[in-house]
Amino acid sequence: MNNLGILLSGRGSNFEAIADNVAAGKLDANIAVVISNRADAGGIESARRRGLKALVVPSKGKPREQHDREVVAALREHQVDLVCLAGYMRLLSPWFVQQFPNRILNIHPALLPAFPGLEAQKQAVDYGVKVSGCTVHFVDTDLDHGAILVQKVVPVLDSDDEHALAARILEQEHIAYSEAIRMVLEGRFTVEGRRVVMKPGA
Ligand code: GRF
After folding, report:
1. Within this chain, do residues 94 and 115 fall inside the same structural domain, yes or no?
2. Which of 142, 154, 172, 202 has the most CB atoms at less than 10 Å from its CB?
C-alpha cells in the first residue's frame, strides 16, 4: 500500500508538487489525507480544491503528545503508510516517531547537517557558504537529524538574498521530495546506521 499522509502548516508548495506528480502518474502513490495544525494554512485550501481529504487538527493550547495522538489517530483512520512532513512547523514527540519507524520523511531547505532549524536559507546567506540546497531525511526524535535519503545542491550567488536563494532551493525541493518518496515506497534501500544505502541494481 502506498498511502501518503501529508502534514503541513503553511502554503503547501511541496505538497502541491507531490500531488502533481501523483496526478500525472509519476509517483505510484495515493494521498490519503492532508492534515494541518493551522486552519489558515494555504496547503489545506489547495488540498480541498484538488478534492483530497483535508483535515485541520488544531495544536494551539494542547500538550504536544495529545495533539500528536489526535494526528496519529487521523493518519491511522486513513490507513497511511508513509508520513510526509511538508512545512510542518511542529516537533514530533518521541511517541509519534515510534508509531511510524522509518516511515516519516521531512524536507529541509539546507544541506544538513548545516543550518538546521528555522530560516535555513538566511543562515546560509549570512554564513557566506557558496553552495546550499535541500535535504529529504527520515525523521527521528532530534530536529532535522534523521538518516538522509536525497540531497540537491544549489549554488549561492553573490547577488542572492535569502528570498532569491529560497526560491531556487524550493524548485529543487519539489523534485527531491518525490524522488525520496519513490525510493521509500519502492524499498530500494537499506538503512545502515546513519547511511541510507541503495540496493545493488537500484
Ligand atoms: C520548505 O522550504 C521546506 O523545506 C520547509 O518549509 C518550507 C515549506 O514550504 N520545511 P511549502 O509550504 O512546502 O511551500
Report:
1. no
2. 154
Q: Domain of 192?
A: 106-202
Q: Is 68 in the pocket of ligand 1 (CB under 6 A)?
A: no
Do residues 143 and 93 share a domain?
no
Reported pTM: 0.97
Residue 180, burial from CB neighbour count under 10 angstroms (0-12, 13-18, 19+) = buried
Residues 60 and 8 in one domain: yes
* Minimum-distance ligand 1 atom for the alpha carbon of 10: 12
**21 CB under 6 A from ligand 1?**
no
Query: Quick check: bond before 113 cis, omega within 30?
Result: yes
Q: Do 28 and 52 reside in the same domain of the chain?
A: yes
The alpha carbon of 89 and the centre of ligand 1 are apart by a number of angstroms equal to 9
Q: Active-site positions?
A: 108
